[in-house]
Amino acid sequence: MAASIIDGKQIASAIREEIRAETEALKARGIVPGLAVVLVGDDPASKVYVGNKEKACQAMGFHSEVHRLPAETPQDDLLALIERLNGDPAIHGILVQLPLPKHIDEKAVIDAIRVDKDVDGFHPVSTGNLMIGDDSLLPCTPAGCIELLKRTGIEIAGKHAVVIGRSNIVGKPAAMLLLREHATVTICHSRTANLEEIARQADILVVAIGKPKAIDARYVKPGAVVLDVGVNRLPDGKLAGDVDFESASEVAGWITPVPGGVGPMTITMLLRNTLTAAKRIHGIG
Ligand SMILES: Nc1nc2c(c(=O)[nH]1)N[C@@H](CN(C=O)c1ccc(C(=O)N[C@@H](CCC(=O)O)C(=O)O)cc1)CN2
């Protein structure tokens, strides 16, 4: 194996210590950061992620609420809950776990969240702010990717970053954040012609396509940095990324594993966004 591992667990844990120190300082001023997570339905992976978010908040000393609603919850009931949380002074961050059941319009739900409590960074105003470089709460997984690069000492400015995947929650915001860090950015997707050839030009390759082990050594330039955002459950119960780790790590210079790479950063960035939201709502920082 040629590549060095980017250890997301270790980096996430260092950031959590920074968040802990800031949280203690905030609590000394009588402000307890509060996060409300809303889960609709029984998706097994979502249940695990929401449980992990709850545990992370509790471990950080945040106020934590999880609203678990049945799969058949009418959209209006969900919107009414969000409206209540928007006005709740103990809540600084609101997150609706995705995916939602099919009868619920995801956009209507995200639009209903108060922008200054939008700790997922998915609201159209947050997205617009990201585009124009204004200070908004950043989507957690893409923000985690940038932290991994910076804290590993990887230069972003002037590099060619190729993002494979154009989802609103990972691919597009990851591309915007890399651009903000002065990378030259190419976004690829399912209809990109010559994907292999374009990916092989990347100094930084971010893969977020939701297809297990789809990207192997043929797509990686020797020495490139590979960030694997995929978390796919295989039929044998094991987790795999979107990158074929065995193959790609023979060629890459740096690579994130799955599990233990980008994944642990997602909840850490959520904690950081909740802390930031609490400070801003109280006019601090
Ligand atoms: N409202 C949101 N919904 C979803 C988001 C999101 O950011 N906001 N992202 C994903 C799921 N997700 C958080 O919700 C998430 C995914 C993966 C991990 C993680 O820690 N992965 C670990 C492996 C965990 C395991 O064993 O299953 C890793 O990669 O090391 C955390 C959070 C979709 N929905």
From TrEMBL:
Residues 6-120 form the Tetrahydrofolate dehydrogenase/cyclohydrolase catalytic domain. Its EC number is 1.5.1.5, 3.5.4.9. SUPFAM superfamilies: Aminoacid dehydrogenase-like, N-terminal domain (SSF53223), NAD(P)-binding Rossmann-fold domains (SSF51735). NADP(+) binds at G165, R166, S167, V231. Pfam families: THF_DHG_CYH (PF00763), THF_DHG_CYH_C (PF02882). Belongs to the tetrahydrofolate dehydrogenase/cyclohydrolase family. Homodimer. This is Bifunctional protein FolD. It comes from Thermobacillus xylanilyticus.
